[in-house]
TrEMBL record, chains A, B:
Residues 20-79 form the HTH tetR-type domain. InterPro entries: Homeodomain-like_sf, HTH-type_TetR-like_transc_reg, HTH_TetR, Tet_transcr_reg_TetR-rel_C_sf, TetR_SbtR-like_C. This is Helix-turn-helix domain-containing protein. Keywords: DNA-binding, Transcription, Transcription regulation. Residues 42-61 bind DNA. Gene3D superfamilies: Tetracycline Repressor, domain 2 (1.10.357.10). SUPFAM superfamilies: Homeodomain-like, Tetracyclin repressor-like, C-terminal domain. The keyword Protease does not apply. It holds the Pfam family TetR_C_43.
Length: 221, 221
DNA sequence: AACGAAGTGGAACGGCCTTTCCGGTTCACC
DNA sequence: GGTGAACCGGAAAGGCCGTTCCACTTCGTT
C-alpha cells in the first residue's frame, strides 16, 4: 500500500503535474469569484481569474456542482472548528454571541458560502453530508447555553443556523455596521431574560439609508 | 380645464379604450408574475399571463423600470395605510408587532415588492420618492412605541424597515412557520425589557431542515 | 530526443431571453 | 359607414452566456 500505484483513489489515475497545478489555480479563482459574485458566476470569469481557458475548467469540473463541492469541503472545516471552539467557551453566552457575529460576517463576506449553506440539499448530497457535520457542533453550542440558563430553551440548532443565514444577507460586504446592530437585537431576543437592551452602536450617517441594503451588486435591469 | 383637451397629463393624449384595457391586464399580470418570479421575470411571461403579445407590453412600458414603478405606486399605498393604522393602535406594542408580522408576510408573499423596497434607489428616483412616503408612517409607529416605553430607544425607523426586509426573505412563501418564530425572537429583542421569552410555536416536523430555506425557487444549476 | 498520451485554449455552436419591426386589425371620429 | 391613426400580435433579429470540440502544446516515458 505505498509508492507508485498509478491509481490513488477509486481507480482514477493521478493528474499530470501541470493539470494538478491548474486544478489548484481554478479552485483558488473559484473561491474568490464565488465569494463576490455568488454561485451563479460564469465559468469564463473563473477561467479568466485562474489564467486558464474555459475548456480547462470544464474538463476538470464538468458540472458546476463538482466545483462547488470541492470548495465547500475545504471551507466547512473552518466553520465547524469555530462552532466547536465557541461551544467550549467557559462563558456559554459569550461563545454563542461571538459565533453569531463571526458566522454572520463570514457569510456576508462570502456569498458563495452563504448560498451553499442555505440552499444546500437538493441534489447536492455530498454538500448536504458535509453541512451536517456542522449540526452537532452547533447543537452542543446551543445546549451549553441553554443548560447555563442564558439561552431561551425553545430554540434549536436549526433556528440558530437560520438566524445566521438571515443576518448574513443584510447589507453588502461593507455594511458590517448594520449587521452588527441587528445581531445585537437578535441576541437580545435569544436571551432568556434581560432588564435592559444591549446598547447599539450608532449607524455612521448612511445617506442612502435603506436603499440597496440587499443584493447590492445585482446587474441593473 | 375640462372635457376634450387631448392631453390629460404632461401633453400625453389619453389611451384608446382597448389600449387602456390592455394596460390594466398587463399590470395585473405583472403584479402576479413579479410576485412569484421576482423583478427579473421575462416580459414574455408577463405577456402570456396578460393574454397579449410581447410587443404590446413593450409599447406600453418600454423599460422594465416603467412597469415596476407603475406597480409599486399602487402597492405602496397599502403598506403606508397599514403602517399608519398600526401607529394609531392604542396599544403601541401590539401595533408594532402586528405590523412586523404583516410586513414580513407580505414581503414573503411578493418577491417583487420585497425587491423594490430593498433595492430601490439606484436610478429609480420615482420609486425612491414613493418609498419615502413610508418613512413618516413607520417613524410615527416607532416613536409611539418608544414614548410608551416598550420599544428600545436606540432603534430607528430604518432599523425597522431593515428587520422587515430581512425576515421577509426567510423561507419560501409556504414557510410562514419559520418566519413567525424568528419575528417573535426579534420582537423580544426589540422590547425594552422582559422577564421571560415569548413562547415560540413549534416548527412542524420539517424533514428537509435548514435546506432550501432561502431562495427556494431558484433555477437549478 | 522522440513518441504518444494527457492536457490546453479559445473559437464556434446553440439555446435562451430581450427587443424590434411590420402587416394586419381595431377604434374613434367625421 | 368610411377613413386614418393608433394599436396589436408574434415572428424574426440581435445579444448574451453556457458548453463543446479539436488543432496544437506540454509532459512523462523509453
Amino acid at each position: 500500500m505505498s509508492s507508485v500505484t498509478p491509481a490513488n483513489r477509486e481507480g482514477a489515475r493521478p493528474l499530470r503535474r501541470d493539470a494538478e497545478r491548474n486544478r489548484g489555480l481554478i479552485l483558488d479563482a473559484a473561491r474568490q469569484v464565488f465569494a463576490s459574485h455568488g454561485l451563479d458566476a460564469g465559468f469564463d470569469e473563473i477561467a479568466r481569474v485562474a489564467g486558464v481557458g474555459v475548456g480547462t475548467v470544464y474538463r476538470r469540473f464538468p458540472e458546476r456542482r463538482d466545483l462547488v463541492e470541492a470548495l465547500f469541503e475545504q471551507e466547512i472545516d473552518v466553520v465547524v472548528a469555530r462552532a466547536e471552539e465557541a461551544a467550549a467557551d467557559p462563558d456559554p453566552w459569550r461563545g454563542l454571541s461571538e459565533f453569531l457575529h463571526w458566522g454572520v460576517e463570514s457569510q456576508a463576506a462570502d456569498r458563495g458560502l452563504a448560498e451553499v449553506l442555505a440552499a444546500a440539499g437538493r441534489g447536492h448530497e455530498r454538500v448536504a453530508r458535509e453541512r451536517d457535520r456542522l449540526r452537532p457542533a452547533v447543537l452542543s453550542l446551543v445546549q451549553h447555553a441553554q443548560r447555563a440558563g442564558v439561552l431561551r430553551p425553545d430554540v434549536g440548532e436549526l433556528d440558530l443556523g437560520l438566524v445566521v443565514a438571515m443576518l448574513g444577507r443584510v447589507g453588502g460586504p461593507e455594511r458590517a455596521d448594520l449587521r452588527h446592530r441587528l445581531v445585537t437585537v437578535v441576541l437580545d431576543g435569544l436571551a432568556v431574560r434581560r432588564d435592559a437592551p444591549t446598547p447599539l452602536a450608532a449607524v455612521p450617517a448612511s445617506e442612502d439609508d435603506l436603499a440597496c441594503v440587499f443584493e447590492p451588486s445585482r446587474p441593473r435591469r
